[in-house]
Request: fold
Amino acid sequence: MTAPQVVLLDALGTLLELEDPVGGLRRELADRGAPVEASAARAALLREMAYYRAHCDQAADLPALEDLRDRCAEVLRAALPGRAGELPSGEVRAALLAALRFTPFPEVADVLSALRAAGSRLVIVSNWDVSLHGVLQETGLAALVDGVLTSAECGVAKPDPAIFHLALERAGGGASAAALHVGDDPRTDVAGALAAGIAAVLVDRRGEHAAPAPGVRVVRTLEGLLPAAR
Reply:
């Protein structure tokens, strides 16, 4: 089959995984003399992550990102028990940022390279703050794609069709009918792409989902995209 003219790609859960944040936070806090149990660290992180998700689109530039990180650290500190909750906010912020480590799934680099070699233009479209650019540089993925669009920078988030249309513009103005969106969330990725007139593929790494809509392919890893690009 002919490679799609444009392939839009979600980031977290599709290209990148978050390495054990609970274990990371516990190690960082213990290094600061404030050990916590796994259940307490998990509960505090869930509260911080909920706050982050509700406010990440405010971080469209570096000053706003620094402010958001300060606020997230304070939310986390307030949720931590004992000595950890008494640490200065700056220490909690440093522990939080050190605990959040992203790594590409094993097949990602090879699949992105194969798609580009087959003629596809690749654009990452993600509900993320401006820091995604740094994450992609650190993980080596920035050099493997043709563009990156974050919800914070464009002011609109998936599943709104507008962000998919903006991503197509970032790819050079490809038509919706010649594009494919790949993501791991049935609502934000699949439903959003379909509403924008773009075909969708659901990445279901744990085998948790059935096909969310007629004609939507479900793959376990990005390697499932390669037959469509040949």
Summary: Residues 18 and 102 are 5 Å apart (CA to CA). The mean pLDDT is 94.
